[in-house]
Design brief:
Length: about 280
């Protein structure tokens, strides 16, 4: 027997073949994985050891985000309001321009109509003056013939008016051709009683304003006994609706109506109801 037969061996016990094969397979797989990773990346790349941390939304960041969203919404709303306001202003400007154009056209139309009216009135006035001149010529010839035949005439010639009557007649005749305007008292337009009142004022006599009161003044006289300056009236004396001034020669001056204005006419043109004498 060998002298070492009973000496225990210090060698490690052998592992079984199956265990060695398993460990070799695992090691081979790890080495393969490392080899593939090494081929894919740089040869000297270092392993990634840094950890990336995602930010955390704290209370302040959340508030700032809410404020930004609110500000954006407010800005969008303001832009919309500005656009709406601009649209309204544009519409208003367009409407104003249209109305101004319409008003201008209407004003031009009225101006043309007024000009046509003035021309028509001027033409009518010229015709009235021509007619009045013709009437005066005819009346003068008639009065002259009567004077030659019988040495005098029954008509009271206005040239015989003196004193206050002459002032009244002269003023009334000076207004012939002026316009008739209801309620007007001169100096370029009159109504019937306004003209009579102004004429008598030339003689220092103040008459009431309306025709009914004027015809109630003085004393009543016959139409066959008229004198220049007498007040003629139409209607009843206490309630006359029109007055005029007798200027002699069978003629009167009065503010008749808007179509004729102040005219001098024969008594036959519109025979008065009566007359009063204030002088």
């Amino acid at each position: 027997m060998s002298h070492t037969a009973h000496i225990p061996s210090h060698r490690k016990p052998r592992r079984s073949a199956s265990k060695l094969s398993l460990r070799a397979g695992v090691a081979g797989g790890v080495l393969s994985t490392i080899a593939v990773a090494g081929a894919a990346g740089p040869a000297n790349a270092e392993p990634v050891t840094e950890t990336i941390e995602m930010p955390t939304l704290n209370a302040d960041l959340s508030a700032d985000l809410s404020s930004a969203v609110a500000a954006s919404a407010e800005a969008t709303q303001q832009v919309a309001l500005d656009e709406e306001l601009q649209a309204q202003e544009d519409a208003a400007a367009a409407k104003a321009a249209k109305e101004a154009k319409k008003a201008k056209a209407e004003a031009e139309r009225k101006a043309e109509a007024e000009e046509a009216r003035r021309k028509a009135e001027a033409k009518a006035e010229a015709a009235e003056r021509a007619s009045r001149s013709s009437e005066r010529t005819t009346l003068s010839a008639s009065v002259g013939s009567s004077d030659d035949n019988d040495g005098g005439g029954s008509s009271y010639d206005s040239s015989q008016a003196t004193g206050s009557a002459a002032a009244i007649v002269a003023f009334a005749r000076a207004q012939v051709g002026d316009a008739y305007v209801m309620g007007s008292t001169g100096p370029n337009s009159w109504d019937c009683s306004g003209l009579v009142q102004a004429a008598y004022r030339q003689a220092g006599i103040e008459l009431p304003r309306v025709s009914g009161d004027q015809s109630s003044r003085g004393t009543s006289v016959s139409l066959d006994n008229l004198q220049p300056g007498d007040i003629l009236y139409w209607g009843s004396r206490s309630n006359s609706y029109h007055v005029a001034i007798y200027v002699g020669g069978g003629m009167f001056v009065g503010a008749q109506n808007p179509s004729t204005g102040v005219v001098e006419r024969s008594l036959d043109y519109d025979m008065p109801s009566g007359a009063v004498r204030v002088l």
